[in-house]
């Protein structure tokens, strides 16, 4: 099992320092990386992937520096924000190209591609050019590449961005299963997703780690504070609220609900839609987790 350790890492671009003395050990499970825009999340992933060499400090896999021994990079897979797919090639050829570049030629790659593409709903577009794909399909194809690489350490930069809820849940399910045996760092801006998928939560601010703790401890810190959400709905949501024992009020056309922070709002909204409601507007009136991000 590969563990990833950043030891007093300073890193940035040209003379601009972004990561400022980051020391952290990532181990098995999903660590969700949160933080405001520009706080250094992507830079941290790129350092972990061996793309940006730190100005100072070390990045270690099983106590060896990935910049001294580049063969260690085979333990790492990275899903960047920009997928880096080749537009002119078909999806299948893209995958074969990346597997070939990675030296994965000895197993039945096509069979594995086929199996995963069924799970991701990509099986019908494997022969289409990447240039014809939607944003969500590109995201899933890029994730497929990461899955095929079958690495011990997986770095995911907003893997579900732009995906519908069904695709999002498929991906969360895959990530959850992978995390039993792997080290996963998962960047998201979505607090619902963070609590749904994270075993640990890491918050970056101005290139420094300001919080790194288990999800359970983070939730415990909120000491029972509820999240308040306003929803404008066409239809009757009350049976769903009652089924989930969610306190609700109705004020000037808006339903106001108080939910535990670890309730997944998208799943609740899907329940409402399945019940025949139409969601017209959602307002996060108060989310206690944001207090922690602001601290
Ligand atoms: P986050 O992922 O948290 O939004 P980033 O790591 O992308 O943050 O960016 C951190 C800072 O680094 C930002 O101020 C951004 O403008 C700067 N930055 C990112 N990429 C580059 C680059 N290639 N060259 C110069 N500055 C960059």
Helix content: 25-40%
The low-pLDDT segments are none
CATH homologous superfamily title of the largest domain: P-loop containing nucleotide triphosphate hydrolases
Q: First CA to last CA: what distance?
A: 34 Å
Strand order within the widest beta sheet:
6-7-8-3-9-10
Number of domains: 2
| Corresponding CATH architecture of the largest domain | 3-Layer(aba) Sandwich
Number of helical segments with 4 or more residues: 10
Identify every distinct bound molecule in the structure, by name, code or SMILES: adenosine-5'-diphosphate
Q: What is CATH's topology name of the largest domain?
A: Rossmann fold
Quaternary organization:
single chain
- Evaluate the radius of gyration: 21 Å
- The structural class is alpha/beta
Cα shape? globular
CATH domain class name of the largest domain: Alpha Beta
Order of SSEs, N→C?
Answer: EEEHEEEHHHEHEHEEHEHEEHEH
| Number of DSSP E strands | 14
Mean pLDDT: 92
For the largest beta-sheet, the strand count, sense and barrel status come to: 6 strands, mixed
Our estimate of the beta-strand percent is 25-35%
Give a structural overview.
- With 295 residues, this protein is an alpha/beta fold.
- The chain has helices at 41-48, 91-101, 109-119, 135-149, 165-178, 191-197, 215-221, 238-243, 265-274, 288-294; strands at residues 4-13, 16-26, 29-34, 56-61, 64-65, 76-79, 153-157, 183-187, 200-205, 208-214, 227-234, 248-251, 254-259, 278-286.
- It has 2 domains: 4-220, P-loop containing nucleotide triphosphate hydrolases (Rossmann fold), CATH 3.40.50.300; 224-294, Alpha-Beta Plaits (2-Layer Sandwich).
- 33% of the residues lie in helices and 30% in strands.
- A hairpin with a 2-residue loop joins strand 9 and strand 10 (208-214).
- The longest helix is centred in the middle third of the chain and has 15 residues, at 135-149.
- The radius of gyration is 21 Å and the shape is globular.
- The two termini are 34 Å apart.
- 34% of the residues are buried.
- The mean pLDDT is 92.
- Residues 13, 16, 18, 35, 37-43 line the site of adenosine-5'-diphosphate.
